[in-house]
User: Fold these one by one.
Assistant:
Number 1:
Amino acid sequence: MAVLAVDNLRKSYGGEEVVAGVSFGVAPGECFGLLGPNGAGKTTTLRLCLGLMDPDSGSIDLMSRTVPGEARPARVRVGVVPQMDNLDPDFTVEENLLVYGRYFGLRERTIRERIPRLLEFAGLAARAASRIQELSGGMKRRLTLARALINDPDLIFMDEPTTGLDPQARHLIWERLKQLLAQGKTIVLTTHFMEEAERLCARLAIMDHGRFITEGSPSDLIARHIEPHVVEVHGEGVAGWADGEAGPLASRVEKSGDTVFCYATDPAPLLANLARHELRYLHRPADLEDVFLKLTGRELRD
């Protein structure tokens, strides 16, 4: 049975439909990813699922309870890592966990028993007495994750959990999320990092303009939407080469700034041609970012 089931969800602001008929389900123990450009409707979808705002229409079943009507008891079994850290600067690391645990009606003894394990999980065992201002960005993000686990949730919502982190901190959080999945936890994740989605998500949906435009496993989406080989070509004269020679050699050619992206099922003719030119190129397998850019475009979203 799905821990989260959404059917034909809709929400409008000022006459603009921000979530436009979204339907999906999340099975116990899986990581479901929600990808999309800025303004696609991802965060609004999460807030609707948590009962933090009311939908215009559609149905939401969260932990076998109807949302928004039964959102409060449903959230007892849910953890949330928000997009922006909202830790209390007046409290220490340990006190942040203690106060947050009280919101769930947990006994203080129970919370204090859980705190050392959560701090160890977050790599913050030596920081229990530290003030929030003394923590790095990566530490704050790991503390926010630990805080989301204080009620031992079955389902965890994560809204861009690694945005703004350096690669080391990002990889550490990925390892922690894999541990949670191995423990049988369920994760709903929004992210702008395609590598993050490929590493963690069993299934994902790409969302744009309030709608799901595709859904499936990362490998399925790559196989379904994109050619298997990508050749990125740079260098002086690349535009003339793309207009004159690339077309017949590739299934599809895209220009972005001073880079030409050539997509091909068989890259051999393309690579043979490039060997005769003084152009730099990178030959790589297609990935989820190629799918994302093909379906949502390369234009900047603010």
Note: The first helix runs from residue 42 to 49.
Number 2:
Amino acid sequence: MESSSSFASQLRWWRERRGMAQLELAGVADVSQRHLSFLELGRTAPSREMVLRLAAALHVPLRQQNALMLAAGFAPAWRETPLEAPALAILDKALSFMLAQQEPYPAFVVDRRWTLLRTNGGGRNLVEFLTGAPLAESGPTPAVNLADALLAPDALRPLIRNWTEVAHYFIRSVHADALADGTRETAALLARLLSYPDVPRIADVPTLDHDMSPVLVMQFVKGETPIELFTTLATLGTPQDVTTQEIRIECFFPANEDTAAIFKKWVAQRTSTKRTPSAVAGGA
């Protein structure tokens, strides 16, 4: 959606995107349908409080709430603070704690569009084993996008045995993000991912059988070493800053004891001999 469009058109766009009738939105926001109609037609200018009330009723993300505020002639309501800023020191400590607690298994901090911001030792070990290249603890330069790394044909795809199933669920996740935030940037990310060869379409139906596991397991294979992981995603429950709302922490867990043993061995070998994961896996 164009950020320069009027408040009236943005409000109507968000209401239609959420599939709400005027009467329904009016009821949720506790305003009259007549007043809401005048706002959508541009016949009435909203107050600052009304913009925030309607945005909350429509579940508009904080970044897009700021766009609504600007369109209505007000200053942005929500700050966007750099993750390294002193104001987010408490969050920085929390992220560091979560990354450390996940050891020896991988954990990654990413932004809304899957740009890698931080990782832990388990994440660096996994990436180095799969790619043969070391990964910095903080966000690498140039930035790594985990969505591209997963779906591009020349990245991790050849190392994932069940790549089609993994890609299917990931594409649906990015599609849900695009619907939720309504930004051109997320829509562009989705379009780029779908442009890669053989990527499943959003409407494709996954293969279903009675023996499927309760969670989808990513089956990495490099050489003769299989690594099977499932993933969890965490977000901050009470964000009041654009940055804090858009951060995600992705944690991977071993799906079997053999995989758990590989990660524990990598830690032991790094501590005692400083050998690389590639060398350790070769002897695993």
Note: The beta strands are 107-110, 116-119, 218-222, 225-234, 248-254.
